[in-house]
Amino acid sequence: MEIYIDTANLDEIKQAADLGILDGVTTNPTLIAKEGIDYGKRLAEICKVVSGPVSAEVIAVDFDGMMKEARERLKIADNIVIKLPVTLPGLKACKALADEGVKTNMTLCFQSLQAMMVAKAGAFLISPFIGRLDDVGEDGMELIRNIRQIYDNYGFDTKILAASIRHPNHMLHCALAGADVATAPLKVITDCMKHPLTDIGLERFLSDYKKAFG
Ligand code: G3P
Hints:
Elements: E1 2-6, H1 10-18, E2 24-26, H2 29-35, H3 39-49, E3 54-57, H4 63-74, E4 80-85, H5 88-99, E5 104-109, H6 112-120, E6 125-128, H7 130-135, H8 140-154, E7 159-162, H9 168-177, E8 181-184, H10 186-191, H11 196-213
Parallel strand pairs: 1-2, 1-8, 2-3, 3-4, 4-5, 5-6, 6-7, 7-8
Helix pairs in contact: 1-3, 4-5, 6-8, 8-9
The protein binds SN-glycerol-3-phosphate.
The site of SN-glycerol-3-phosphate (G3P) has 9 residues, from helix 7.
């Protein structure tokens, strides 16, 4: 499974890239607002650190506005992926951009048919939001499993990018369900390498060694 970091914080992106297992970056308007920096400027900085796909979300909600913003963002770097909402104008923009060879990430997916429609339009990535479905008492992971089945039934090559990931258990079940990519905050990524028995075991190995050899 590929791993993207879900942040617009440059320091966190650098830390994740430094681990050597980072495949891409996702950003959204909320994450950029948190940084309080110009979106285009930050995207350019991110693309200097990460060579994999970097998702840039449009702010416009109409087709023409989305296309205009997409063209601006695409000038930033070759690895920019245009992130669009799974609305009807978003679907139309996805198709128009895909026909031009532009990669898109279709976001705010909460039901499987949205994923089927954007795959037909040639989306590069679909972003089902697991955590937000869990938050309202639904099963986010079931959405991942259903999209996997639909894509496999028809041979769609749109990648499933599991988003709104809150903890390592989400990461585990995404991998088991066959998500192609998971995007997560830095803490969730680093927590995937943690287990208390690893720490206790390491401590014991080192103290035994020290006792025997000083
Ligand atoms: O980038 C979209 C998504 O990952 C947001 O996650 O935690 O705000 O639901 P969250």
